[in-house]
Amino acid sequence: MTPKSMAENDLIKFLAVIEKVQTLADGGIRVAFDLDAGAIEQAAALMQARRINALLEVVIVTVKNG
To answer: 43 — phi, psi (to 5°)?
Structure first.
């Protein structure tokens, strides 16, 4: 992935915990995640996706409970 673009199948992979799940006034749902402080590249990729208004497919895999 280059800083200026994202390919259709680029992966942004990171460990995270769910910080908040919120229902919006229009009925939409907003989910916020907390990432580890070392996830700088992943955060940059997410910021780039936001800048280019990318539609993301999100898959959640539980790796540890509690």
So the answer is: -65, -40
Q: 27-64: per-residue pLDDT in tens?
A: 999 999 999 999 999 999 999 999 999 999 999 999 98
Shortest CA distance to 33 belongs to which of 54, 47, 59, 15?
Answer: 15
Structural domain containing residue 9: 1-66
- H helical segments located in the chain: 40-51
Domain count of the fold of the chain? 1
Tell whether pTM > 0.70.
yes
CA angle 27, 31, 5 (to 5 degrees): 110
Which residues lie below 8 Å from residue 23, measured CB to CB, with a gap of 6+? 29
